[in-house]
């Protein structure tokens, strides 16, 4: 730009020396226009010239008669010389445009990277959060109304198969991009500027869609949502402006009036967002990440008083479930490959209806010391990249993960990642 200014100055000097003022008067407006357009292109104002800006200019006409310069003639805006020569003026119309983008290239958001069944808002939990950015690409400060709706379109090519509940929308109140329930309470975008600078008037803001996840959902379930931003009237802080639902595209241009022009694009995946309708939208989705646990229980006769009275049984012997026989129960827990980790997994087996002294059919009795002596009453095997076998005591007071209290066997496994498994074993004697 500095080079262009120097060039204009040089032109003024040279043209003045040669008495070429008429030509100079024609060139300077053109050079100034080039200078202005280049300045706008390189500026920080993506919305362009502000709506309502008045643009006025006037042309001049110089001529001679017989080599004698005559009085300069100024252009007129209405062709009526009786009211003088007036500049031609128009006002810049209002471009209404927004861009909505999804923050991130995958499901969920940084606030809730993992969405699990039963996740809900309140009680110290943020609920399940999706994050979007709304940008004002028009040329005036605007409000934006916000709405979210379930959609079958999943932007990540999965299959939408459920809807979340208690869906809410909140605007980022402090600009940190993380949903904070105590801070992010606004439900519409207020006074969003059309260009960003360091003075606190950004052209973009983050919007959160916050929801509860039904407890019945399972690993891999998907709920897709579309966020709609409807352009609304700005100009009054802390007051939600009315939605702007029509523009002046079908009205003749009036150079003296600021007219509205919708300039937004169409979201073909959203039937509610057409081209140039004052609405911008984009999709995001919740992906359920949860353990997929299965549990199976089996029993095996490992000795009886006649066929095999002493363990281990000799090869080829086949003990039977007769009184005095020892039965080993095995409870197998598996977390499916690819599922989320399960923590504090606890398995219990109530033997009250069969065990001696239980008040029911007294058919079995729990055996102690079956896995290596006193205090080794229950066996826990965890397969987590390597097999770990742990013998547990039946007492509730021995500090380990197993116990047998009130005729109930209980064993806790700290963690089972996807693809891992555990087995619990204990023995009873048939009465």
What does this structure look like?
- The chain has 431 residues and is mainly β.
- The protein folds into 3 domains: 92 residues, no CATH class; 193 residues, Sandwich (Immunoglobulin-like), CATH 2.60.40; 138 residues, Sandwich (Immunoglobulin-like), CATH 2.60.40.
- 9% of the residues lie in helices and 37% in strands.
- The chain has 2 helices and 27 strands.
- Strands 19, 20, 22, 23, 24 and 27 form a 6-stranded antiparallel β-sheet that branches. Strands 8-11-15-13 form a 4-stranded antiparallel β-sheet, with no helix packed on it.
- The longest helix is centred in the N-terminal third of the chain and has 21 residues.
- The N terminus is likely disordered.
SSE succession: HHEEEEEEEEEEEEEEEEEEEEEEEEEEE
Any idea what the radius of gyration is? Answer: 39 Å
Give the % helix: under 10%
Q: Look at the helices and sheets and give the structural class.
A: mainly beta
Kindly report the CATH topology of the largest domain: Immunoglobulin-like
Residue runs with pLDDT of under 50 for 5 or more positions: 1-45
How would a textbook summarize the main sheet? 6 strands, antiparallel
Number of domains: 3
Query: Which CATH architecture of the largest domain?
Result: Sandwich
N- and C-termini, Cα separation: 101 Å
Number of helices: 2
Give the tally of β-strands.
27
**Strand share of the residues?**
35-45%
Shape field = rod-shaped
* CATH first level of the largest domain: Mainly Beta
């Amino acid at each position: 730009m500095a080079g262009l200014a120097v060039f204009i100055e040089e032109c003024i000097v040279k043209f003045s020396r040669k008495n070429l003022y008429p030509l100079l008067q024609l060139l300077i407006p053109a050079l100034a226009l080039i200078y202005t357009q280049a300045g706008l292109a390189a500026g920080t104002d993506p919305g362009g010239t502000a709506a309502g800006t008045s643009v006025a200019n006037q042309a001049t006409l110089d001529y001679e008669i017989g080599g004698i310069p005559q009085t300069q003639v100024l252009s007129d805006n209405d062709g009526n010389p009786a009211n003088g020569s007036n500049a031609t003026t128009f006002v810049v119309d209002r471009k209404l445009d927004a861009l909505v983008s999804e923050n991130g290239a995958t499901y969920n958001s940084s606030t809730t990277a993992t969405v699990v069944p039963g996740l809900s808002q309140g009680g110290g939990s943020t609920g399940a959060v999706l994050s979007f950015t709304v940008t004002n690409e028009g040329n005036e400060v605007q409000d934006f109304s916000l709405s979210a709706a379930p959609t079958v379109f999943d932007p990540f090519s999965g299959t939408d198969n459920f809807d979340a509940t208690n869906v809410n929308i909140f605007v980022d109140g402090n600009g940190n991009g993380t949903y904070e329930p105590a801070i992010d309470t606004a439900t519409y975008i207020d006074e969003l500027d059309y260009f960003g600078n360091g003075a606190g008037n950004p052209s973009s803001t983050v919007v959160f869609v916050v929801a509860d996840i039904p407890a019945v959902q399972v690993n891999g379930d998907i709920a897709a949502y579309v966020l709609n931003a409807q352009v609304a009237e700005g100009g009054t802080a802390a007051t939600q402006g009315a939605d702007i639902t029509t523009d002046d595209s079908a009205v003749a241009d009036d150079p003296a009036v600021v007219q509205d022009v919708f300039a937004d694009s169409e979201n073909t995946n959203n039937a509610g967002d057409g081209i140039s309708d004052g609405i911008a939208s984009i999709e995001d989705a919740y992906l359920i990440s949860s353990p997929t646990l299965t549990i199976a229980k089996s029993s095996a006769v490992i000795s009886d008083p006649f066929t095999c009275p002493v363990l281990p049984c000799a090869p080829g012997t086949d003990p039977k479930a007769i009184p005095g026989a020892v039965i080993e129960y095995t409870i197998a827990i598996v977390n499916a490959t690819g599922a989320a980790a399960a923590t504090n997994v606890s398995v219990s087996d109530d033997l009250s209806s069969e065990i001696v002294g239980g008040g029911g059919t007294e058919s079995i009795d729990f055996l102690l010391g079956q896995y290596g002596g006193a205090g080794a009453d229950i066996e826990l095997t965890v397969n987590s990249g390597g097999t770990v076998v742990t013998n547990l005591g039946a007492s509730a007071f021995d500090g380990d993960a197993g116990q047998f209290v009130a005729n109930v066997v209980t064993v806790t496994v700290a963690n089972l990642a996807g693809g891992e498994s555990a087995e619990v074993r204990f023995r009873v004697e048939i009465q």
